[in-house]
């Protein structure tokens, strides 16, 4: 018994820095258990833990979050992704009331959350840089707009499937309040129109990635605004945006010259990923002009960064690699 007691005391008195180093090597369920071993461990882990995930929790996530949030007050990255909806508003409100240092929060698939969660986050977590609320279909655009008024440091925002929240009014608020935004996912937000996208383009000039897949209302005007104002744009999703025509594609191609004037390292700029699947109005000359302008766009096997599936009329479009392979085949045939 004495030997066991000594061993326990040795573990209990382990320096905080070493304990946190050990905890960093363990999975999150084990860390959660370790935080209940003794008061010393609980204090050390609660004080020093900055990254925590409950996505492993299949049941009772809400009650666990209610007990954990008041203890893990210095957490900066909190992952609450769910396979089935468990969280309700009181858990998020508890997080907002206690975890004021959060910079990265994942609430994806939280179908049961309502606007009170966003209002609580607006007041309690002003340092948010990355927020994932994809699939949170109950949030309204009013609550999202309110959030952006307080969380002005947002750089990465995932609104995929947030049909009610992602309205043109909300996008205007994002453009007005979140000038540092670099990545935005609006996939399948069917109410988004040119007015909303143009507000983003004018208000968020540092956008690197924008997913508009399934935003069926947008037209060339959205893409032209992005081409003119967002010179850092590297990834653009336009899947099933069937109102997009060659005019938009030529605007993207011509924006390369503006990048060259704005940036000394223009070779590193330009689109690297573009999804124009099911954009059936596009023609090969326009898409080829874009491909020629942006050498990082590839149609060759294994490097598909220009996705044109569903556009049978674009099969003749080739990237630089494709032309090189074509020339090699011709040389061998002769």
TrEMBL record:
Q: Where are the transmembrane segments?
A: none
Any single GO BP term = SCF-dependent proteasomal ubiquitin-dependent protein catabolic process
Q: Show where the F-box domain sits.
A: 11-46
Q: For the F-box/LRR-repeat protein 15-like leucin rich repeat domain, which residue ranges apply?
A: 125-284
Q: Which GO terms describe its cellular component?
A: SCF ubiquitin ligase complex
For this protein, the record's InterPro entries field holds:
F-box-like_dom_sf (IPR036047), F-box_dom (IPR001810), FBXL15_LRR (IPR057207), Leu-rich_rpt_Cys-con_subtyp (IPR006553), LRR_dom_sf (IPR032675)
In its UniProt entry, what is this protein called?
A: F-box domain-containing protein
Q: Which organism is it from?
A: Tagetes erecta
Q: What is the lineage of its organism?
A: Eukaryota, Viridiplantae, Streptophyta, Embryophyta, Tracheophyta
């Amino acid at each position: 018994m004495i030997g066991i007691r000594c061993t326990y005391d040795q573990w209990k008195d382990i320096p905080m820095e070493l304990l946190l180093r050990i905890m960093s090597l363990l999975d999150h369920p084990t860390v959660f258990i370790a935080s209940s071993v003794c008061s010393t461990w609980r204090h050390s882990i609660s004080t020093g833990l900055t990254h925590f995930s409950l996505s492993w929790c299949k049941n009772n996530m809400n009650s666990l979050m209610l007990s954990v949030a008041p203890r893990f007050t210095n957490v900066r990255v909190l992952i609450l992704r769910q396979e089935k909806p468990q969280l309700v508003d009181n858990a998020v409100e508890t997080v907002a009331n206690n975890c004021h240092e959060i910079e990265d929060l994942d609430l994806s698939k939280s179908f049961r959350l309502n606007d009170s969660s966003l209002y609580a986050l607006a007041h309690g977590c002003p340092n948010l840089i990355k927020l994932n609320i994809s699939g949170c279909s109950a949030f309204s655009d009013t609550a999202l707009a309110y959030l952006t008024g307080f969380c002005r440091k947002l750089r990465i925002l995932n609104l995929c499937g947030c049909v009610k929240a992602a309205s043109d009014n909300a996008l205007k608020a994002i453009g007005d309040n979140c000038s540092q935004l670099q990545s935005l996912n609006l996939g399948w937000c069917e109410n988004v129109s040119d007015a909303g996208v143009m507000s983003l383009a004018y208000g968020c000039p540092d956008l690197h990635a924008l997913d508009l897949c399934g935003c069926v209302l947008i037209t060339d005007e959205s893409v032209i605004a992005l081409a003119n104002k967002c010179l850092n744009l590297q990834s653009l999703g336009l899947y099933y945006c069937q109102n997009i025509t060659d005019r938009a594609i030529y605007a993207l191609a011509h924006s390369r010259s503006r990048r060259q004037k704005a940036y000394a390292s223009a070779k590193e700029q330009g689109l690297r990923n573009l999804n124009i699947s099911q954009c059936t109005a596009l023609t090969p000359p326009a898409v080829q002009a874009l491909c020629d302008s942006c050498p990082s766009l590839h149609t060759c096997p294994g490097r598909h960064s220009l996705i044109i599936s569903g556009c049978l009329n674009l099969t003749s479009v080739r990237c630089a690699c494709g032309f090189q392979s074509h020339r090699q085949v011709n040389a061998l045939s002769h």
